Amino acid sequence: MVHPSPRKTKVPNILGDWDDVRFFLAVAKTGSFSAAATQLNTKQTTVGRRIQALERRLGAKLFDRHRHGMEVTPAARGVLVQAESMLSNATSIERHLAGLDREMAGVVRIASTEGIAAHWLVPRLDHLRRSHPDIIVQVIAGDQVLDLATRQADLAIRFFRPTSNQLVAARVGQFNMSIFAAPNYIEQYGLPQKLDDLREHHIVDHTTLHSLPSMKPWSEVVERSPNVVLRTNSSYAAVEAVRVGYGISVFPDYVTKSSNLVAAPIDLKIVRDIWLVSHEETNKGVRIRTVIDYVRDQFRQDEREWFSLPTSRASTVSDQTVRSPTLRSFGVGTTEGSRS
């Protein structure tokens, strides 16, 4: 008896787990599994596994690997717009639900720079933990700007005013950027007294600062210096390098609150604002609202000591800084378009 050969089963074009769309978009936007994993707060192997599973279900290859990274295939480009629309709708639902959330338990994510996170924010969270033990605060430290619309964070401490009409902000402080050195460095090389002196000193370069227009005076110092002894993209690493006497660098004046660094008497005329930012759709949830109010109150308590300019310095800031309003209410949105 002749048995017919079994027919090959065609892989159904089934999307399956809609959450895989987030993984697809993250790889498409970042260009690599590792960068997507960082964005999604997961492992690189997890991203690769989710993409492979999605490709099997759809019966189509989604990415080509090139020397410069992962690139969306022609077959996948057609669904990229629909995938972005799906993610937009999904995060809109999440934001709406977060705004209606009445649970005083769960995770609240705060995005902050390394310096603010390590030296100011985290040491002040213990009272919040004891008052609301079921709220878990996740502090995401770094210079990257996380997207509050897609819930990468619920609250952000930023040094620039947000541009989106959906973001709500309060200016909670100001600080001056100064040049600092450690006592042991000063003992050996002296403390620079004027800009021209900086050419003779060892420079620690915090590289991410150069993308900020307001940091141009310091960027010009670094460009002209023949003595850049260390470059790093980490503010924490830069502070540690200066602390051990590696060289001099530029930091917010509040660095002296957690170190013995000494400021040089050189005015770079760099003044920056601190903004507390949330999304209008999520900041009404009681858990997020509680953390926002707590952090804002901590800023208010420490504004005079940590986050305000000396009287003499405050009187000489630019007109733009003087006119920038202090928004004490999170009911006021901001639309000014400068990142610096």
What does this structure look like?
This protein is α/β, with parallel strands linked by helices. It has 2 domains: 20-99, Arc Repressor Mutant, subunit A (Orthogonal Bundle); 103-340, 3-Layer(aba) Sandwich (D-Maltodextrin-Binding Protein, domain 2). Helix content is 38%, strand content 19%. It has helices at 20-30, 33-40, 44-58, 74-100, 114-121, 126-131, 183-189, 216-224, 235-243, 286-306, 311-314, 319-323; strands spanning 63-66, 69-72, 106-112, 135-141, 155-158, 167-181, 203-206, 228-232, 249-252, 262-263, 271-279. The strands form 3 sheets. Strands 3, 4, 5, 6, 9, 10 and 11 form a 7-stranded mixed beta sheet that branches. A two-stranded antiparallel ribbon has the order 1-2. A two-stranded parallel ribbon has the order 7-8. It is globular. Residues 8-15 and 315-340 have low confidence and may be disordered.
